[in-house]
Amino acid sequence: QSDLKTTLKAVIPERLQLYSHVKKDLSSHQIGTQTVGSVIGGMRGSRALLWESSSVDPNKGVTFHGLTIEECQAALPKSKHESTDPKSEMLPESMFWFLLTGKLPTQSQINTFSSELAHKGDLPEYVVKSLDNLPKTLHPMTQLSIGISMMNNESVFAKAYAKGIPKTDAWEYVLDDVINLIAKLPALVGKIYSNTYYSGKNLGTINMDKDWSYNMASSMGFTLDDSVNIKDLSKSQSNDFVNLVRLYCALHGDHEGGNVSAHATHLVGSSLSDPFLSYSAGVQGLAGPLHGLAAQEVVRFILEMKNAIGGDINHKVKIEEYLWSLLNSNRVIPGYGHGVLRKADPRFTAMIRFGDNRAEEFSKDDNLQLVKNLSAIAPSVLTEHGKTKNPYPNVDSSSGVLFYHYGLQETLFLTVIFGASRALGPLSQLVWDRVYGLPIERPTSVSLKKLAGL
Ligand code: FAM
């Protein structure tokens, strides 16, 4: 008598044969409004989601309400402390305002909004205690999703819904939750960083007069005035780090609706789960290595490659050989490829520009140089390999080494910053989902046999 696994194993070959036939021979067949290829191919090419704030053109990359990255950098409000912070990047809270409303905020609106976020930025005591009790070995992304989902205890939407609210009012409660959730991210990120790597030591404070990114950097111990400066940064390096957080988080906040973190948030929210539960689902999707976890994978890969090629970062042949060794062992090249893009990601380019604008700081940074060299070499290797539809660098290719440069060298942690950033777009869409009163998502499924016409 065979056990469960043996029984399953016995039926797999026949099913796989049918799957290959359907994929190879029937992909272009229509089933309802979809092709068979789309049903079994991760819904590629299927325009099935309503998303207001950004869109992604395969060749041009992301635009936010029609504005390119450069246009956003020029138009969105920056730090209010211009005199002490002359190189300020656009603020993520400016991006959030723009994503949510479609209107460019004024400096004064953003000054007030930054202050509102800081004033709402403290973590509930039970969240702090619970995080303190988690094993130190728990992946930081797991801690992030736990922290966010626990705060559903604070949800004004869930409480109001339980009492009974008209559907047309739901968006206002959801907006309150969304603002509270985003406000608490800097302290949450800092807490997870400290618990995982600094034995829970208080690394910094939330400053009421500062913006969201400054407070995230501060709570992680990277600023001079409001934290313990565990990284021993100079004043200009500390300013750079804050600006890196600003730029990174503003740029990574939204990438239309079909990516896993955005889609998961939207899907879970469609059941009227509150924003905390909805976004914790998004964070769990972001924690996959084919999505946000690539941020950590890229840095590890760059460090390993540098080691394997004996530090010869300009040696084209050695780099090519290393890439082929990965591909031949059936591994992916992290930071390359994309589900939608067919050119280098403009967010990759913007992050590279961040380093180039600080040439003195980065002139001796081998990791960034290797990332740049790789972006000139990997596309031809991947093209020759012949599988990926997009052989160019994606969003995760360059950002990790920039953070690494300033001392954020705990690679497992990088996706947490991505997780804080990605709250902006999906949560602004969640507000609109409730404004429109969108229904629960409920597509229908179909069996392989049915697809095969059996
Ligand atoms: N290295 C090697 N092979 C790759 C590859 C890469 N970087 N990118 C794609 N391929 C392969 C892919 O595995 C697939 O092989 P099989 O047919 O054997 O399954 C084939 O090329 C076709 O894939 P595709 O249609 O070009 O890409 P997908 O839309 O299926 O997947 C990615 C897109 C991003 C998941 C994929 O390119 C990948 O795995 N990249 C490496 C991981 C990565 O950098 N992820 C971060 C993505 C980032 F944008 C984000 O979301 N944060």
UniProtKB/TrEMBL annotation:
One Pfam family recorded for the sequence: Citrate_synt
Sorted UniProt keywords: Mitochondrion, Transferase, Transit peptide
GO molecular function: 2-methylcitrate synthase activity
GO cellular component: mitochondrial matrix
Location in or out of the cell: Mitochondrion
Domain of life of the native organism: Eukaryota
Biological processes annotated in GO: carbohydrate metabolic process; tricarboxylic acid cycle
PANTHER family xrefs: CITRATE SYNTHASE, CITRATE SYNTHASE 3, MITOCHONDRIAL
Family statement drawn from the similarity comment of this UniProt entry: Belongs to the citrate synthase family.
Protein name per Swiss-Prot or TrEMBL: Citrate synthase
Organism: Wickerhamomyces pijperi
